[in-house]
Protein backbone atom coordinates (compact mmCIF):
# COMPACT_ATOMS: atom_id res chain seq x y z
CA UNK A 1 0.00 0.00 0.00
CA UNK A 2 1.31 3.38 -0.97
CA UNK A 3 1.08 6.43 1.30
CA UNK A 4 0.90 9.90 -0.19
CA UNK A 5 3.06 12.46 1.56
CA UNK A 6 1.18 15.26 3.33
CA UNK A 7 2.03 18.88 3.32
CA UNK A 8 3.39 20.53 6.46
CA UNK A 9 0.16 22.51 6.97
CA UNK A 10 -1.96 19.37 6.80
CA UNK A 11 0.33 17.60 9.24
CA UNK A 12 0.09 20.51 11.72
CA UNK A 13 -3.71 20.51 11.49
CA UNK A 14 -3.82 16.79 12.28
CA UNK A 15 -1.60 17.23 15.33
CA UNK A 16 -3.70 20.05 16.81
CA UNK A 17 -5.88 18.91 19.78
CA UNK A 18 -9.59 18.77 19.06
CA UNK A 19 -11.56 21.78 20.15
CA UNK A 20 -13.73 21.13 23.20
CA UNK A 21 -16.82 23.21 23.59
CA UNK A 22 -17.63 24.40 27.11
CA UNK A 23 -21.37 24.91 27.55
CA UNK A 24 -20.84 26.82 30.82
CA UNK A 25 -18.54 29.35 29.17
CA UNK A 26 -20.89 29.61 26.21
CA UNK A 27 -23.84 30.23 28.49
CA UNK A 28 -21.89 32.90 30.33
CA UNK A 29 -21.18 34.65 27.01
CA UNK A 30 -24.82 34.42 25.90
CA UNK A 31 -24.04 31.89 23.20
CA UNK A 32 -26.13 28.84 22.46
CA UNK A 33 -24.43 25.52 23.10
CA UNK A 34 -25.00 22.82 20.52
CA UNK A 35 -26.37 19.59 21.89
CA UNK A 36 -24.05 16.63 21.43
CA UNK A 37 -25.33 14.00 19.03
CA UNK A 38 -26.53 10.69 20.41
CA UNK A 39 -23.73 8.32 21.23
CA UNK A 40 -21.09 11.06 21.22
CA UNK A 41 -18.77 11.10 24.21
CA UNK A 42 -18.92 14.16 26.47
CA UNK A 43 -15.81 16.28 26.84
CA UNK A 44 -13.99 16.58 30.17
CA UNK A 45 -15.83 19.78 31.04
CA UNK A 46 -19.23 18.37 30.19
CA UNK A 47 -19.39 15.43 32.64
CA UNK A 48 -22.53 15.80 34.76
CA UNK A 49 -21.81 16.44 38.46
CA UNK A 50 -24.46 15.67 41.07
CA UNK A 51 -25.09 18.31 43.71
CA UNK A 52 -23.30 17.70 47.00
CA UNK A 53 -26.56 17.13 48.86
CA UNK A 54 -27.59 14.42 46.42
CA UNK A 55 -24.24 12.67 46.70
CA UNK A 56 -24.55 12.54 50.48
CA UNK A 57 -28.13 11.30 50.30
CA UNK A 58 -27.08 8.63 47.84
CA UNK A 59 -24.49 7.36 50.32
CA UNK A 60 -27.25 6.53 52.78
CA UNK A 61 -26.68 5.68 56.46
CA UNK A 62 -23.04 4.78 55.80
CA UNK A 63 -22.30 8.33 54.69
CA UNK A 64 -23.95 9.76 57.80
CA UNK A 65 -21.92 7.44 60.04
CA UNK A 66 -18.70 8.40 58.27
CA UNK A 67 -19.49 12.10 58.65
CA UNK A 68 -20.24 11.72 62.37
CA UNK A 69 -17.10 9.63 62.88
CA UNK A 70 -14.99 12.31 61.22
CA UNK A 71 -16.52 15.00 63.45
CA UNK A 72 -15.88 12.94 66.58
CA UNK A 73 -12.26 12.30 65.58
CA UNK A 74 -11.64 16.02 65.01
CA UNK A 75 -13.30 16.92 68.35
CA UNK A 76 -11.25 14.33 70.25
CA UNK A 77 -8.06 15.56 68.58
CA UNK A 78 -8.77 19.20 69.50
CA UNK A 79 -9.71 18.36 73.11
CA UNK A 80 -6.72 16.06 73.56
CA UNK A 81 -3.99 18.15 71.98
CA UNK A 82 -5.06 21.72 71.25
CA UNK A 83 -7.93 23.20 73.26
CA UNK A 84 -10.13 22.27 76.19
CA UNK A 85 -13.11 24.00 77.76
CA UNK A 86 -13.34 24.69 81.50
CA UNK A 87 -15.74 26.52 83.80
CA UNK A 88 -14.69 28.66 86.78
CA UNK A 89 -16.55 27.44 89.92
CA UNK A 90 -14.80 29.43 92.69
CA UNK A 91 -13.83 32.96 93.69
CA UNK A 92 -10.07 32.39 94.06
CA UNK A 93 -9.11 34.21 90.81
CA UNK A 94 -11.37 37.25 91.03
CA UNK A 95 -11.40 39.73 89.45
CA UNK A 96 -9.39 38.19 86.63
CA UNK A 97 -11.68 35.17 86.36
CA UNK A 98 -15.21 35.17 87.76
CA UNK A 99 -17.53 32.38 88.82
CA UNK A 100 -19.48 31.43 85.70
CA UNK A 101 -16.69 32.19 83.23
CA UNK A 102 -16.31 29.54 80.52
CA UNK A 103 -12.75 29.28 79.23
CA UNK A 104 -10.94 27.84 76.27
CA UNK A 105 -7.55 26.61 77.49
CA UNK A 106 -4.59 26.57 75.12
CA UNK A 107 -2.85 23.22 75.64
CA UNK A 108 -0.05 23.85 73.12
CA UNK A 109 1.41 27.07 74.57
CA UNK A 110 3.53 25.33 77.22
CA UNK A 111 4.08 22.08 75.26
CA UNK A 112 7.78 21.77 76.03
CA UNK A 113 7.91 18.02 75.51
CA UNK A 114 6.55 15.29 73.29
CA UNK A 115 5.42 15.77 69.70
CA UNK A 116 4.24 19.38 70.02
CA UNK A 117 7.49 20.50 71.61
CA UNK A 118 9.33 19.47 68.42
CA UNK A 119 6.73 20.60 65.88
CA UNK A 120 5.24 23.84 67.23
CA UNK A 121 6.83 26.87 68.89
CA UNK A 122 6.25 27.04 72.63
CA UNK A 123 7.19 29.31 75.52
CA UNK A 124 8.48 28.53 78.96
CA UNK A 125 6.43 29.30 82.03
CA UNK A 126 7.15 32.72 83.50
CA UNK A 127 6.17 34.56 86.66
CA UNK A 128 2.78 36.15 86.19
CA UNK A 129 1.46 33.47 83.82
CA UNK A 130 -1.98 32.04 84.56
CA UNK A 131 -1.90 28.25 84.33
CA UNK A 132 -4.44 25.42 84.42
CA UNK A 133 -3.09 22.31 86.13
CA UNK A 134 -4.04 19.05 87.77
CA UNK A 135 -4.38 19.59 91.50
CA UNK A 136 -1.40 17.80 93.10
CA UNK A 137 -3.48 16.51 96.02
CA UNK A 138 -6.29 15.14 93.81
CA UNK A 139 -5.01 14.97 90.19
CA UNK A 140 -8.50 14.29 88.81
CA UNK A 141 -9.38 17.91 89.70
CA UNK A 142 -8.23 20.95 87.73
CA UNK A 143 -7.16 24.25 89.28
CA UNK A 144 -6.30 27.63 87.78
CA UNK A 145 -3.83 29.97 89.50
CA UNK A 146 -1.13 32.51 88.72
CA UNK A 147 2.56 31.58 88.79
CA UNK A 148 4.48 33.57 91.40
CA UNK A 149 7.67 31.55 91.75
CA UNK A 150 9.56 29.50 89.12
CA UNK A 151 12.33 26.95 89.80
CA UNK A 152 15.18 28.53 91.72
CA UNK A 153 13.16 31.49 93.07
CA UNK A 154 12.99 32.47 96.72
CA UNK A 155 9.44 33.46 97.73
CA UNK A 156 8.00 35.12 100.80
CA UNK A 157 5.01 37.28 101.81
CA UNK A 158 5.33 40.16 104.24
CA UNK A 159 2.05 41.76 105.32
CA UNK A 160 0.40 40.36 102.13
CA UNK A 161 3.13 41.80 99.89
CA UNK A 162 4.87 39.19 97.71
CA UNK A 163 8.67 39.25 97.53
CA UNK A 164 10.57 37.16 94.96
CA UNK A 165 14.32 36.92 95.39
CA UNK A 166 14.15 39.79 97.86
CA UNK A 167 12.34 42.17 95.46
CA UNK A 168 8.71 43.26 95.98
CA UNK A 169 6.43 42.22 93.10
CA UNK A 170 3.91 44.61 91.57
CA UNK A 171 0.59 42.79 91.26
CA UNK A 172 -2.14 45.13 89.98
CA UNK A 173 -4.47 42.15 89.45
CA UNK A 174 -4.46 41.06 93.12
CA UNK A 175 -7.54 41.59 95.31
CA UNK A 176 -7.40 41.82 99.14
CA UNK A 177 -10.81 41.80 100.81
CA UNK A 178 -10.08 40.46 104.30
CA UNK A 179 -9.59 43.14 106.91
CA UNK A 180 -7.90 40.84 109.41
CA UNK A 181 -4.27 39.68 109.31
CA UNK A 182 -3.66 35.94 109.19
CA UNK A 183 -0.06 35.19 110.16
CA UNK A 184 0.19 31.98 108.16
CA UNK A 185 -1.58 33.36 105.08
CA UNK A 186 -0.12 36.88 105.01
CA UNK A 187 3.34 36.34 106.54
CA UNK A 188 4.30 33.27 104.56
CA UNK A 189 6.24 31.02 105.06
CA UNK A 190 5.60 30.15 108.69
CA UNK A 191 7.01 26.63 109.20
CA UNK A 192 6.15 26.67 112.91
CA UNK A 193 2.49 27.58 112.41
CA UNK A 194 -0.41 25.48 111.19
CA UNK A 195 -3.62 26.35 109.39
CA UNK A 196 -6.95 24.49 109.19
CA UNK A 197 -6.49 24.14 105.40
CA UNK A 198 -2.84 23.09 105.53
CA UNK A 199 -1.91 19.71 104.02
CA UNK A 200 0.21 17.66 106.45
CA UNK A 201 2.69 16.43 103.84
CA UNK A 202 3.27 20.01 102.67
CA UNK A 203 3.91 21.24 106.22
CA UNK A 204 6.69 18.66 106.56
CA UNK A 205 8.18 19.43 103.13
CA UNK A 206 8.02 23.18 103.61
CA UNK A 207 10.11 23.04 106.78
CA UNK A 208 13.01 21.60 104.75
CA UNK A 209 12.81 24.29 102.05
CA UNK A 210 12.65 27.46 104.16
CA UNK A 211 15.97 29.26 104.49
CA UNK A 212 16.34 32.73 105.98
CA UNK A 213 12.58 33.24 106.04
CA UNK A 214 12.25 32.50 102.29
CA UNK A 215 10.79 29.45 100.54
CA UNK A 216 13.10 27.94 97.92
CA UNK A 217 11.28 26.69 94.80
CA UNK A 218 12.89 23.38 93.71
CA UNK A 219 13.65 22.35 90.13
CA UNK A 220 10.63 21.29 88.09
CA UNK A 221 8.18 22.92 90.52
CA UNK A 222 6.14 26.13 90.53
CA UNK A 223 4.71 28.26 93.34
CA UNK A 224 1.21 29.54 92.48
CA UNK A 225 -1.25 31.90 94.16
CA UNK A 226 -4.80 33.03 93.44
CA UNK A 227 -5.51 36.64 92.49
CA UNK A 228 -8.22 36.84 95.16
CA UNK A 229 -5.40 36.38 97.61
CA UNK A 230 -7.26 36.27 100.95
CA UNK A 231 -9.63 33.40 100.02
CA UNK A 232 -7.43 31.34 97.72
CA UNK A 233 -6.30 27.83 98.67
CA UNK A 234 -3.03 27.70 96.78
CA UNK A 235 0.63 26.75 97.14
CA UNK A 236 0.72 28.19 100.63
CA UNK A 237 -1.54 25.36 101.80
CA UNK A 238 -0.75 22.34 99.61
CA UNK A 239 2.65 22.98 98.02
CA UNK A 240 4.21 23.29 94.58
CA UNK A 241 2.77 22.40 91.19
CA UNK A 242 4.92 19.85 89.30
CA UNK A 243 5.74 20.82 85.73
CA UNK A 244 4.06 17.68 84.38
CA UNK A 245 0.77 18.68 86.05
CA UNK A 246 0.46 21.90 84.05
CA UNK A 247 -2.00 21.52 81.17
CA UNK A 248 -1.96 24.96 79.57
CA UNK A 249 -3.08 28.53 79.92
CA UNK A 250 -6.53 30.15 79.70
CA UNK A 251 -6.81 31.76 76.30
CA UNK A 252 -10.23 33.37 76.01
CA UNK A 253 -13.55 33.58 77.86
CA UNK A 254 -16.09 32.42 75.30
CA UNK A 255 -19.09 32.75 77.66
CA UNK A 256 -19.74 34.22 81.09
CA UNK A 257 -22.95 33.75 83.09
CA UNK A 258 -23.79 35.33 86.41
CA UNK A 259 -25.74 33.35 88.98
CA UNK A 260 -29.38 34.12 89.80
CA UNK A 261 -28.34 35.41 93.22
CA UNK A 262 -25.73 37.78 91.83
CA UNK A 263 -26.95 41.37 91.58
CA UNK A 264 -27.48 42.58 88.04
CA UNK A 265 -25.50 45.56 86.74
CA UNK A 266 -27.53 48.73 86.19
CA UNK A 267 -29.06 48.82 82.70
CA UNK A 268 -29.96 52.09 80.96
CA UNK A 269 -33.67 52.62 80.37
CA UNK A 270 -34.78 49.43 82.16
CA UNK A 271 -35.92 48.06 78.78
CA UNK A 272 -35.77 44.40 79.80
CA UNK A 273 -38.07 44.71 82.82
CA UNK A 274 -41.26 44.38 80.75
CA UNK A 275 -40.28 40.91 79.52
CA UNK A 276 -40.41 39.30 82.97
CA UNK A 277 -38.67 35.93 83.10
CA UNK A 278 -37.25 36.32 79.60
CA UNK A 279 -35.71 39.60 80.63
CA UNK A 280 -34.08 37.96 83.64
CA UNK A 281 -32.64 35.18 81.47
CA UNK A 282 -31.34 37.71 78.98
CA UNK A 283 -29.53 39.54 81.77
CA UNK A 284 -27.62 36.44 82.92
CA UNK A 285 -24.81 36.64 80.35
CA UNK A 286 -21.99 39.05 81.11
CA UNK A 287 -21.77 40.33 77.55
CA UNK A 288 -18.76 42.53 78.26
CA UNK A 289 -16.71 39.42 79.13
CA UNK A 290 -17.65 37.43 76.02
CA UNK A 291 -14.52 36.65 73.95
CA UNK A 292 -12.38 38.43 76.51
CA UNK A 293 -8.70 37.46 76.26
CA UNK A 294 -7.37 36.26 79.63
CA UNK A 295 -4.30 38.10 80.91
What's the gist of this structure?
Helices cover 25% and strands 20% of the residues.
Shape: globular
Which whole number gives the mean pLDDT? 76
N- and C-termini, Cα separation: 90 Å
- H and E string: HHHHEEHEEEEEHHEEEHEEHE
Point out poorly predicted stretches.
Answer: 1-58, 267-277
**Regarding CATH, which class of the domain at 78-254?**
Mainly Beta
- What's the CATH architecture of the domain at 78-254? Ribbon
C-alpha-based Rg, rounded: 33 Å
CATH topology name of the domain at 78-254, in short, is Umud Fragment, subunit A
Total beta strands: 13
* Portion in helices: 25-40%
Structural class: alpha+beta
How is the main sheet built?
8 strands, antiparallel
Describe the structure.
- The chain is an alpha+beta fold and 295 residues long.
- The protein has a domain at 78-254: Umud Fragment, subunit A.
- The chain is built from nine helices and 13 strands.
- The strands form two sheets. Strands 1, 2, 3, 4, 10, 11, 12 and 13 form an eight-stranded antiparallel sheet that branches. A five-stranded antiparallel sheet has the order 7-6-5-9-8.
- Helix 3 (52-59) packs across helix 4.
- It is globular, with a radius of gyration of 33 Å.
- The chain starts with 7 loop residues before the first helix and ends with a strand.
- The model is unreliable at 1-58 and 267-277 (pLDDT under 50).
